[in-house]
Specification:
By secondary structure, this protein is of the alpha+beta class. The chain is 21% helix and 20% strand. It is globular and about 50 Å long.
Length: 208
């Protein structure tokens, strides 16, 4: 069982990570538009694009960045006073992550309270009992922080694109179109052509 669930983040076939070259002409732009609309209208807080952030009169406007036109990133603690002093993630670095992964349906993801949105996969220890309560066998997968070497460890292409520029102790939301996640085909609990949201904290950055 542990091996089964690890497939979602680590051991998918390489071809699946590069399905962008076979994008569906209708689905991809629709997902891009719907993610942007969600971030700008329904997300809490409402987010500006990076260009709008530069033009904003607000001192610390909440904003999202875009990687590869299909991966949208919001760093919640971007304006922390000491953030610039923390190690910045670059390709080749060893990075430790705690993550939650969701099939994204363009609605707000609830992380606290009684009616949380359950991730389809997570190593967040605070959710361990919640998974067990759903009938999963204790020990089905690891709830330890995940260590990857960026650019070497096989992870979702969208997550790989979102990590550079993050810093140690960042809390990050990413939203990605299907081609940056699992591609055209269904995979276990992931319906085909699903946009995916990955929320994560950067627990550690070891420079190489």
């Amino acid at each position: 069982m542990k091996r089964f669930f690890s497939i979602f983040l680590l051991v998918l076939p390489a071809a699946l990570f590069w399905s962008a070259c076979e994008d569906n002409e209708d689905v991809l732009p629709d997902q891009q538009n719907r993610i942007r609309q969600y971030l700008r209208s329904n997300h809490v807080p409402k987010l500006l694009s990076e260009t709008e952030k530069e033009e904003s009169l607000d001192e610390n406007p909440a904003f999202y960045t875009v990687a590869g036109d299909t991966v949208y990133r919001y760093i919640r603690n971007y304006y922390d006073a000491e953030r610039a002093d923390r190690a910045e993630v670059e390709y080749g670095d060893s990075v430790v992550l705690t993550f939650r992964m969701y099939v994204f349906d363009y609605t707000n993801i609830v992380e606290t309270g009684k009616e949380i949105t359950m991730p389809y996969y997570s190593n967040d220890k605070t959710l361990e009992q919640s998974y067990y309560n759903t009938g999963l066998t204790p020990g089905a997968w690891s709830f330890e922080p995940l260590r990857i070497e960026l650019g070497r460890t096989q992870i979702l292409r969208g997550l790989e694109l979102a990590l550079p520029g993050c810093r140690a102790r960042d809390t990050v939301e990413t939203y990605m179109t299907y081609n940056m996640a699992y591609g055209e085909d269904p995979l276990g609990v992931i319906p085909k052509q699903s946009p995916v949201a990955v929320f994560f904290t950067v627990d550690e950055v070891e420079k190489q």
